[in-house]
């Protein structure tokens, strides 16, 4: 690569990194994304926010130095990337409100609202919009999230980079080839933290029943969950192999695992995730109906 090519690449990366980003909605997820961007060195003056709750806007402005706007349409005309961070039930009204600005400015739209399909959102926005759907999960609030992404055909390679950089500020990202796969992402990682919380809750109750003090049990369960996840992320083996490595023949772990297997633990998990996936499909259909 010669000097001119290197300069072109550097310029492109700078544009991707420092475009004007707008957030419509200043809730927890938007605040986490903003916090992650600022922590990564993103200029706060290039981050714009609107919300009907002026207290939320004031807190974000004081904490991060972001720029606030009086209305959604102004923000959509200002920014190259617009994050729609409102509740799914509010998305139709919001999209129609900013449709004229989107048609004029042609920003990349990143929707983090669960269940809103790209075709419905594009229709509400007036058509021909570049849209990335993102399915983050709540650990994004502590920069440990997992986000599934899907881009429609109008999203350019540069815009994919922008969307991925945005969501990487709060954790790991994965792209899916088909939008309907986001229903599976929702079932696995979107709802996933609740499954682990349920297991942790059950283990804590069991530990107390076995005679441990509540605070001791909670600390042991939480650290065990953290350690198991960290080991799975860093190990050279899949979870099944890791489980086999800690399951000594005739030992305590083997006895517990055998009981869970006999009770149909794996089948129950499969049924639960199928139910979550189906519900995600149902909600997408319901939310896509015109108001």
Keywords, please?
2 domains; single chain; eight-stranded mixed β-sheet; ProC C-terminal domain-like fold; alpha/beta; elongated; 58% helix; 291 residues; 8 strands; disordered N terminus; 13 helices; Rossmann fold
Offer a quick outline of the entry.
By secondary structure, the protein is α/β, with parallel strands linked by helices. The chain is built from 13 helices and 8 strands.
Task: Record the SSE blueprint.
Elements: H1 3-17, E1 21-24, H2 28-39, E2 47-50, H3 54-64, E3 67-68, H4 72-78, E4 81-84, H5 91-105, E5 108-111, H6 118-124, E6 130-135, E7 145-151, H7 157-168, E8 171-175, H8 181-190, H9 192-209, H10 214-234, H11 239-245, H12 252-262, H13 265-287
Parallel strand pairs: 1-2, 1-4, 2-3, 4-5, 5-6, 7-8
Antiparallel strand pairs: 6-7
Helix pairs in contact: 4-5, 8-13, 9-10
